[in-house]
Amino acid sequence: MEPSLCTFEVFNHLRKSTSMDRLIHNKGLVVESNKSTSRRFTSFPTYNNKVHKGAFNALRKEVYQKLGDYKQAAHHKILAKGIFLLLLFLTSLSLYWVFATQPTLFLLLAATLGTLCLPLVLNIGHESVHGNFTPNKKINKLAKWAFFLLGTSDYFWSLRHNYAHHAYANIGDWDLDIEQSKIIRLSPDQNWEKRHRYQHWYMPVVFMFYTIVWFFYRDFKDISHHKFGKKTIPNHPKKEIIKLFAAKIVHLIFLIGIPYYLSQDMGLVMQGFFLFHFSASVLTTFALISTHVGETQEVVAVNDQNLPYSWFEHQFRTTADFSTNSHWMTHFFGGFNHHVAHHLFPNIPHIYYPSITPIIKRHAQENGIQYHDYTNLAQAALSHFKRLKKLSMKERGKA
What we know:
mainly alpha
């Protein structure tokens, strides 16, 4: 039987529990097991695993053979890189305060801090959410506080990322990462509106506000949101809501409160605050749009709770890689550029992705599945805007 994504395949010797409870698939039903809630059954979209039977098992077997016994050094390298990025961020933050009275340096440091957000989240926060930052559970749990530094919550991010996005990548109404505002049209199945004819022009400007919207709106929306993919939570833990508010207060103190106290120049401080978020937003959105919503990736529709592809094929049809030959990009993005590998093996540390990506490409070809890969980030981002331009036009025959 083809394994489901939410049973996250890991090295047998790396198998570990996550902070979220494991979902168990059974004939189109999902059993949610949670200490704070009773067990319940919910209908969910089912992959067409009658095709490509055994394809993932064959891939997994070769990947494990390639990697051999797990090397502790891999986690040491990830840990060392994480510590370096954290120290670099904290040093830049300290200098941001020190030079609060010198406009040029202050704004330069604001942009630097914003740029450091993505590698900090991907190399520390993202890895820790998947249990990959370190085998030490206490350190891994501590690493999740990387989200706290950026004014958000690892708890809500994990719900979106693990239970909605990874389980149902690019599936309408299930993947919350593509459930965007009506101002953007990502699929022919979405209703066309007059404003969409200009979306390839105005979306680059909108993208500049991505983290600001996340900080001031999306997180608060998630508090009142109770369904994340296949996981339904009647009430979010109060401590997680408190942590979210605390993170936002600390973020505002770090970026606005302390600099204003030191400079007494609110105009300059607000420029720094927005420059921080503009820098973080542009880099973050470029990474996100490059992996799931280019010209070639599909946004898949559910037909009577049935999906058209096997779980294995679905990962290739909805995901793309970029800059896989660049070691620098792999380190900077925490393996995010090897995105197909990440969706197939989310609990394998990203440091192994360059080794297993060629194997994944070959298995896709052997199974008659197209593997999508962009030479660089610019090419991948351009593909997204070509998609927006194509979908800005109303299809013939549509009302």
